[in-house]
Amino acid sequence: MQSRYPQKPGIDFILKQAFFYWSKTLFFQLIFSIFYFGIFFTVVFFLDGKYGILAQYAEAAKYAKDGLEAYSAQILKIQANPGFQYFSWAIIGTSIFLYPLNLGFYQIYRKIDLNEKLELGDLLAGYNGISFFKYIGYYIFWLFVYIYTFQTIILAVIWIFVTILVAPLMFFNNKRIFEAIPLNLQALRTYFLEIFVCVIVAVIFKYVGFALFFVGGLFTFPFWNAMIYSLYKTIFSEKS
Questions:
Q1: Which pTM value belongs to this model?
Q2: CA-to-CA distance for 31 and 34, rounded, in angstroms?
Q3: What percent of the chain has pLDDT over 70?
Q4: Low-confidence ranges of the chain (pLDDT < 70)
Q5: Among candidates 185, 88, 80, 180, which has minimal Cα distance to 143?
């Protein structure tokens, strides 16, 4: 790993850079969100029509007034239903399939750096060739560790920081998962404050569009990718 700059850049530099990439690609942010949520919710509503899981959750919510124990008992009944298992695995599978869509933004941001013409097909860069299976494999690994650690919350957050820069390292430097993670840890030791603050800002901004005005979330939801690219570009050189 090599620092791209003689002196460590400030947080404001990384944030301004991320917002620059995001603001230059609002059309692509919108297309991403329409495509992502269109597929995701199509699968959700199709499966719900078959298994009625959402209706079961709505019914279970009525027991919340009777206390946590009564509500939890209803949730456990839903989760014991075979239909819930099929529903859950299908949602996980859909999320895995959609993950490479995020990587297309890395190609778009790199093209902006190189002053190259952007194309809508750039969003699908993560689906090109056999690299698609590499990215899918990484996300399967990442997701199941995340699901397992989510019960503790803290470990899940640590896992996010440990892997925050793995995807761009794989995309630009062709690193394997277990080559990229040590580089990510090295970056985390050197740039912990910068990475911590930027992640917090990215998470808040990512969802603020849904909180303030729902449609705006279609533009802010993919902001996470701009922040990751800004961190990657700041911390790593192409010779990593």
A1: 0.87
A2: 5
A3: 92
A4: 1-8, 210-216, 237-240
A5: 88
Say how far apart CA 168 and CA 51 lie, in whole Å.
38
Q: What is the Cα 160 distance to its own chain's centre?
A: 10
Give phi and psi for 129, each to the nearest 5: 65, -165
Find the angle CA(108)-CA(99)-CA(186) to the nearest 5 degrees. 75
Alpha-carbon separation of residue 57 from 41, 44, 67, 155, 167 (angstroms):
17, 14, 16, 27, 34
Residue type, 105: F
- Helix H or strand E encompassing 24: helix 11-24
Average pLDDT, the chain: 88
pLDDT at 216: 65
Residue of 199, 169, 203, 201 lying closest to 184 (CA atoms): 169
The two tokens of residue 148 are 């397992």
Query: Does the CA dihedral 219-228-202-160 come out positive or negative?
Result: positive
